[in-house]
Design brief:
With about 200 residues, this protein is of the alpha/beta class. The protein contains 5 helices and 9 strands; from the N terminus they run H-E-E-E-H-E-H-E-H-E-E-E-E-H. Strand 4, helix 3 and strand 5 form a beta-alpha-beta unit.
């Protein structure tokens, strides 16, 4: 039992690395062709205004889904800044809010209260007409991330390790691509092009 306790977290890291490798081999979106990878999992979450947001009530829009937590010490802030640039690009193209939506889902609702998410999102000039910061129960949102094929692990100290991926979902709720937000070759323009191509 002591061995299990001692080696649980390193073992989890190895498993996560294996999952990352499997996810990385999934093709990212391209302007020429976006495959269908199956239906995105439905969900029911609350936005910062207390309104229920679901996959179904955002139907008809091309959606980009991102799982994060506001206390993230490394990848989440620059990735959210990237989403801010994407928001601006979609606004420039006349696609934001009417044709597209950005969904940032926290899996750390204990610390990411509504007030905390409002403070966090204010740093990124979020337009709440088309960019939703969502929260739900911790177990629910962690499982939801996994259902989107995005790994999230919580360690004994309450910290999170997670894959830093976007999932692209079309108007009918089909997953069309994953993007590794840590990949320097993935650009805002590429994602905007892919979203526009689905429209």
């Amino acid at each position: 039992m002591e061995l299990i306790k001692r080696f649980w977290f390193p073992g989890a890291l190895v498993i996560m690395c294996c999952v990352i490798v499997l996810i990385i081999i999934k093709p990212t979106g391209s302007n020429s062709e976006l495959r269908e990878f199956g239906a995105a999992p439905d969900f029911e979450l609350l936005d910062t205004e207390g309104k229920v947001v679901t996959l179904d009530n955002t139907k008809g829009k091309v959606r980009l889904v991102y799982f994060f937590f506001a206390n993230c010490p490394d990848v989440c802030p620059p990735t959210t800044a990237m989403l801010s640039k994407l928001q601006n690009e979609l606004i420039t193209r006349g696609l934001f809010a009417t044709e597209t939506a950005l969904l940032s889902i926290t899996f750390d609702p204990i610390r990411d209260t509504t007030e905390q998410l409002l403070k966090y999102s204010a740093n990124y000039n979020v337009d709440t007409d088309g960019w939703y910061f969502l929260r739900g129960e911790e177990d629910y949102t962690i499982q939801l991330a996994k259902d989107f094929a995005i790994s999230v692990i919580k360690d004994k100290e309450g910290n999170f390790l997670h894959q830093n991926f976007f999932a692209l979902v079309d108007q009918q709720g089909q997953i069309r691509a994953w993007y590794d937000a840590n990949d320097l070759e993935v650009t805002v323009e590429q994602i905007a092009d892919d979203m526009q191509s689905l429209i």
